[in-house]
Automatic annotation (TrEMBL):
Keywords assigned by UniProt, alphabetized: Glycosyltransferase, Transferase
Family statement drawn from the similarity comment of this UniProt entry: Belongs to the glycosyltransferase 1 family.
Protein's name in the database: sucrose-phosphate synthase
Keyword Cytoplasm: no
Length: 715
């Protein structure tokens, strides 16, 4: 049976999978501004979900996010499947990732493999998705794993990027060590590079994002990027007269002259939003104070003292600056606002002849700018980032230097004082948003970009011959390194006896970076029978039983777009590298040796070369002198998950015991895992059992720890 993917018929409806992991995501009453993780990205993905589900070309769209069971947040976030009542094709699906409680995004990294495994199990039960679309680096990591295992394209939207964040925070005085501890930026940046190498399409909001932010990355390819600005919900954000909104009563508590035009700022209490710079601009300009009030809506709060350090510092500085400039009666800073208050605030400010300002130090896009513009409110915005595109398209405001308080004050006063210009900006903004920034426009451009991708429907896998079908209900995999050096005969006999005794319940496999013939020679030397499964050459080959039948479906899956000859030629031409003859290489692996370190530029440079040549490969370091290059879809961990899925064995019925740093790909996620020998590489992964014993005794210890052979195994 031919297992190659078939092209998707034009009439077939798309099944789209969106992933956004952090923050608080639900269909209604989004808690925007609650913290740094519940901001514009949350609104973006929920609105995108709704807009895609309303399109006739889309048959189903799932938004995958993290399940949270925490008394400090609503019960909504614990529901596994949230169907949207007005859009039956849209679903929000939640999976566990680490502890039940709400966690900041920086704390999620150790739990992403587990989330990925839950998501894969769900998607295997659905009609195969047309593509995976990840949002932000954490979801991008999960998206890569899912796309490579399913054999579908990856689309990615970064929202913000680690290199840009590190640059701006270092400039503000933060130390490299503090940034690494707080934000895990090196891990994030490394993941972002891998996403850029894997994704078929990167969606950005502005051209500036491509040039200045992605331009900082080694593996960025502008040819795979498309500028598709986010949309705005025009049914919520529209102009028009209205009675004073409920929140205006709250604002009047602060203001002596509430009928003055307001300068409105709305953002999270984040240092990068530069609210302090805005207060300096207002406080240093008496003419502006006489002309307008200042209204700062900076999230919601109960007690500033109970907030996290970053928001607490920003809000404390706001209060101190208001006191310093004696702005009481002229500045409003409400403690609460609801999502429904936001469009009311824009219309209220427009009705009084006010303006909206985004003074952020840098702004990747500026969703609040198009919301305000849609309601007829002229804008002033930072010149650093996406607002340049918005103002160029809509002709509805002016750019400001966020570090020049005097200029900000002068431009605010000028716009508020010139009624003709104000009216022109208000009119242009309403028309421009409807032309460039509606969700209908976004989805049309999105689907046009998808038409350029090779969307496929993977065929069902070949039927497994009866002799190769694993009938056991659990799998034990050992890293072949556990057989080096030669085990003590009594220890080896104990393992062999255990495998024989439980052969109906448990299948046994070995995984290795070695080629098949070397592993077979090792087994012969150790006088061990060929196990049920052999995964060799870094996950590029799977063989079953004594007959050594090769899994053809796996070979076809990883072989898509593999360019082995180009890899071989590249390595052969690389100074300081030696490769054996082509006859000694595997079908889907190229084995290289570092011959001369003085000539060799290093593995990082070699990895860059692979991606610069647009070769979809994965570089695996075997030891200081050897490495493999394998297809992007191949890895030991992916191969194990493939075998488990093919033979209908749940991942929590799979135990993998590894021994060394090169085995890290095996361990983690929802597979039961152990590392033997007291290595410390995996201490950050609490779910991985650390055995102090080495070799086979360590493996036996892990089997006992997990009670793996009991009918009540730890699963």
């Amino acid at each position: 049976m031919d297992n190659r993917p078939e092209s998707k018929p034009e009439s077939a409806q798309l099944h789209l999978v969106l992933i956004s992991l952090h923050g608080l995501i639900r269909d209604q009453n989004l808690e925007l501004g609650r913290d740094a993780d519940t901001g514009g990205q949350i609104l973006y993905v929920v609105e995108l979900l709704r807009a895609l589900a309303a399109h006739p070309r889309v048959g189903r769209v799932d938004l995958l996010t993290r399940r949270i069971q925490d008394t400090h947040v609503a019960d909504d976030y614990a529901r596994q499947d949230e169907s949207l009542p007005d859009l039956p094709k849209a679903h929000i699906i939640r999976f566990p990732a680490g502890p039940d409680e709400y966690l900041p995004k920086e704390a999620l990294w150790p739990y992403l493999d587990g989330f990925s495994d839950h998501a894969m199990e769900y998607l295997r039960q659905q009609q195969s998705p047309s593509l995976i679309h990840s949002h932000y680096a954490d979801a991008g990591y999960v998206g890569m794993r899912l796309a490579l295992q399913l054999g579908v394209p990856l689309v990615h939207t970064g929202h913000s990027l680690g290199r840009s964040k590190r640059q701006s925070l270092l400039a503000s005085g933060e130390s490299e060590r503090t940034l690494e501890k707080k934000y895990r930026l090196s891990q994030r940046i490394r993941t972002e590079e891998e996403i850029l190498a894997t994704a078929s399409l990167i969606i950005t909001s502005t051209q500036d994002e491509i040039l200045r932010q992605y331009g900082m990355y080694n593996w960025a390819n502008a040819e795979r990027m498309r500028v598709i600005p986010p949309g705005v919900n025009l049914s919520r954000f529209e102009p028009g007269p209205q009675p004073p909104p409920p929140i205006s009563t709250e604002l009047q508590r602060f203001l002596r002259e509430p009928q003055k035009p307001p300068v409105l700022a709305l953002s999270r209490p984040d240092e990068r939003k530069n609210i302090a710079g805005l207060i300096h601009a207002y406080g240093q300009n008496p003419g502006l104070q006489a002309r307008a009030n200042l209204v700062i809506v900076a999230g919601t709060r109960e007690d500033i003292r109970d907030m996290a350090a970053g928001p607490r510092q920003v809000l404390t500085e706001i209060l101190l600056l208001i006191d310093c400039y004696d702005l009481y009666g002229r500045v409003a800073y409400p403690r609460y606002h609801r999502p429904d208050d936001v469009p009311d605030l824009y219309r209220w400010a427009a009705g009084l002849g006010g303006v909206f300002i985004n003074p952020a130090l840098t702004e990747p896009f500026g969703l609040t700018l198009i919301e305000a513009a849609a309601c007829g409110l002229p804008i002033l915005a930072t010149e650093d980032g996406g607002p340049k595109d918005i103002i160029a398209n809509c002709q509805n405001g002016v750019l400001i230097d966020p570090l020049n308080a005097e200029e900000i004050g002068e431009k605010l006063l000028s716009m508020l004082s010139d009624k003709a210009t104000w009216k022109s900006y208000a009119k242009n903004g309403i028309a421009g948003v409807r032309r460039y920034y509606s969700w209908q426009t976004h989805v049309d451009q999105y689907l046009t970009a998808l038409d350029e991708l090779p969307l496929t429907v993977p065929q069902r896998q070949d039927i497994i011959p009866t002799g190769e079908r694993i009938t056991a209900d659990r799998l034990l995999f050992l890293g072949a390194r556990l057989l080096d050096p030669a085990p003590i005969p009594e220890q080896q006999a104990e393992l062999v006896a255990l495998l024989h005794r439980h052969r109906r319940k448990m299948a046994f496999g070995l995984v290795s970076f070695r080629p098949l013939h070397e592993l077979l020679a090792l087994l012969k030397q150790r006088r061990m029978n060929v196990p049920d499964i052999l995964i060799t050459r870094g996950g590029t080959q799977i063989h079953y039983g004594a007959s050594l039948s090769r899994d053809q479906g796996w070979s076809r899956h990883i072989g898509v777009d593999w360019q082995g000859d180009r890899v071989y030629d590249l390595l052969a031409e690389t100074p300081g590298v030696q490769v054996v003859g082509r006859s000694g290489q595997g079908f889907y692996a190229v084995h290289g040796f570092i011959r001369d370190r003085a000539e060799f530029e290093g593995l990082v440079a070699l990895n860059d070369q692979l991606h610069n040549c647009d070769i979809p490969g994965r570089l695996i370091t075997l030891n200081p002198q050897e490495f493999l290059v394998v297809p992007q879809r191949a890895s030991l961990g992916f191969a194990i998950r493939y075998v488990a899925d093919r033979h209908d064995i749940a991942l929590d019925h799979v135990l993998v015991v590894g021994s060394a740093r090169a085995d890290l790909d095996l361990l983690g996620g929802n597979i039961l895992a152990a590392q033997v020998g007291g290595e410390k590489d995996l201490q950050q992964h609490e779910a991985i059992y650390q055995s102090q014993a080495s070799g086979l005794p360590g493996a036996m210890e892990a089997i006992t720890h997990y009670d793996f052979l009991s009918n009540n195994a730890l699963i």
